[in-house]
Write a structure and sequence with these properties.
The structure is a single chain. By secondary structure, this protein is an alpha/beta fold. Helices cover 28% and strands 27% of the residues. It has nine helices and 37 strands. It has a 13-stranded parallel β-sheet with strand order 1-3-5-8-12-16-20-24-27-29-31-33-35. Strands 9, 10, 13, 14, 17, 18, 21, 22, 25, 28, 30, 32 and 34 form a 13-stranded parallel β-sheet that branches. Strands 7-11-15-19-23-26 form a six-stranded parallel β-sheet, with no helix packed on it. The model has no long low-confidence stretch (mean pLDDT 88).
Amino acid sequence: MEINDLTPAERRVWRAFVTGATVDFRDGDADGDWGPERSVRAKVLRALLLNGPAEPGEVPALKLLGARITGELDLRYATVEQVIRLNYCRFDRTPRLAGAQLQYLNLRDSVLPGLAAARARIDGSLRLTRCRIAGPVRLGGTQIAGALFLDHAEVTGDDSGLPALALNQLSVDDDLCAAGLKARGMIRLDGARIAGSVDLQDADLSHPGANAVQAETLEVGANLLARRLRATGRIDLRGARVPGRIDLLDCALSNHGGTALRASSCVIGELWLRRGEPIDGMLNLRATEIGQLNLAPEKLPDQVRLLDLTYTFLTPHAPVESRLPMLDRDDTFNPHAYEQLTASYRRTGDDTSARLVQLAKQRRHRRTLPWYGRLWGHVQDTTVGYGFRPLRAGIWLLSLLAVGTLTFTLHHPAPLKPAESPHFSPVFYTLDLLLPIISFGQEGAFAPTGVYQTLSYVLIVTGWILATTVVTGVTRTVSRQ
């Protein structure tokens, strides 16, 4: 392409390219008139980047501000060694950069109908800060040696069914900065690898009834920061690896009637889920390993899935009465979840709360048993609280001992062999009836009749029940220790 074939605006760009100078077409207002005086054909930019002029001792670069790019900028599979900076620009058509090898690409504050850069390679950073993109952004399989900036960008998907932001298999050697991002449509991060952190603080994501974020097997080198995130639709992090923290403080997650947050089969250093309104939709943490679970009870939704969830620490320390509903909201009885909560209280030295969790576990298990199992469970619960309230057995024994002693004091049973019978003692006779193993020689020497015989049978049966439940509780306690 010859310089004589260019418009006055394009000649300015051509001459500035040699030295890497910036051409600013703005006249005090980046959203003003987009007439010919600030229009540059995409094919001119392509010619500059692939075969532009050069001068010894100068570093060429394409730096444009406030230009209208007409036509299609097609750099597919091209190798571009110059820096590309197109800020405050308006693109008539979607730039095609699939498979390209670029040094650095900066489209900050620009307006685009989309961006197609799948499987590209960028040796520096890709900056889309404050861009307004009215179509899909395709970066699947792209390798970025620097950072990816999507902070305060607005991305709106089209009706094609494609993700608004296709970042699947993306590789970023630094951070993914998307604070304040506004996305309408799915953000797809399946298989992406971010060496640094992912920043979604103050982001506003919406894809009602579907996945707002689909990030299965996402790998993050540091943290996933999402304070004050607003998401309508499901966030799917299944199989993600985040060795730092997932920070969801003050977030608003909503997917009414479905799953709001799915973080199953993940490995997470810390999960912070506190402050703000309760989650609207199911929380799924099945088979996830978490170092520190920083979870406020009031943040939990009506439905949770906690099967095989493991965590080392649970903070903040909250009364057991506020933690137990979390376990009860799982439709399936999950003994492991109760053991995890028990261990958490024991680590803080709160053995009383740990015992109450174990008692709640037995009561929840009772609901899964047949009628006779539930009946026996009620007996154990009423008498000694499944062994976690042993003082109850003492109260029962003392009460029955008092009843028996008073009754048999007023009415001595007749001796079987008067000449050989020991002296009758109402206290030890009642103890003989209540205690199934210990014998004081009273029970076999006297024979009550009528209603007193019935009372003796009641004391014998009750004694066996109390003894069995106490032994069961002690055995359970010893086995736990």
